[in-house]
Amino acid sequence: MYILDTCAFLTQNHPEGEIATISEIESELNNRQSKQYFTNMKEIGLKIREPKVASIDKIRMNSKETGDLSVLSSIDLKILALAYEMQGTIVSDDFAIQNVALHMGVEFTSCSGNEIKELRKWKYRCSACRAEALEKVDSCSVCGSEKIFRFKAK
Ligand SMILES: [Zn+2]
Description:
The protein is α/β, with parallel strands linked by helices. It is 36% helix and 18% strand. It is elongated.
């Protein structure tokens, strides 16, 4: 089973076989061709599934661990949750999605041929006082600065 992210409909380049996605993907399709492709795929067997809340929570927890949570949309979380739940292979060009999948042992592939090879761990750092945080914060807990940037921890 392949779980299709937006790239599959935009590029029409994805593995063949049993395919599924979430209903919200349709709102991400911004041109007539991809919308038409989505409709066509539904007619020939694309399954629309809703992941369980418990699965979405599990993804949220895991993406916090890798430091990707702040860059994942609710649609991204749901796509990951569905792939996790159905034990499918996720088809996505989004490196944050791929990273969380890798962290959780969920198989993934891309539309573009660009896949991450190793897990990336992200942290946050205050650009004023250099204090580090594991999660994204609006302001630094040490000095109050709002200039926080994400960096790749080793
Ligand atoms: Zn600071």
